[in-house]
Amino acid sequence: MSRAALTDPATRKALLFALLAESLAHFYAHAAWLSETQLSALAGQWLSQAKLSLPSAQQRDFARLGDELARELAASLSREAGLYAAHEMMEARDPRYVSPFAQDMLAECERRLAEHTLL
User: Fold this and answer.
1) Residue 89 in contact with residue 20, Cβ under 8 Å?
2) Which of 24, 59, 68, 94 could disulfide-pair with 86, CB 3.0 to 4.6 Å?
3) Domain that holds residue 44
């Protein structure tokens, strides 16, 4: 089965959001950051489930950007606020879950993607 290329801006934003959420959740659960390789593998899993493809170099670009965003967010939050943020973002991966915080983070993901010409 062939996979479609990841070209839709909304889907690219969703991928970055998912990587950001996973990175934050892992950090607050284990007090350690995921490696670029681990985040890149998560990107590959996400893409596979969505029946999409992205060259491995671009998967690494998304992984790096997700890690950068997660570390910036964690540095700006207390532990309690970070736990809340991670929880909200993990829940918001389900499109039926409405979260103003997650909407703000999606907008930030979109901004960062445009900045890095990945959108």
Assistant:
1) yes
2) 24
3) 4-115
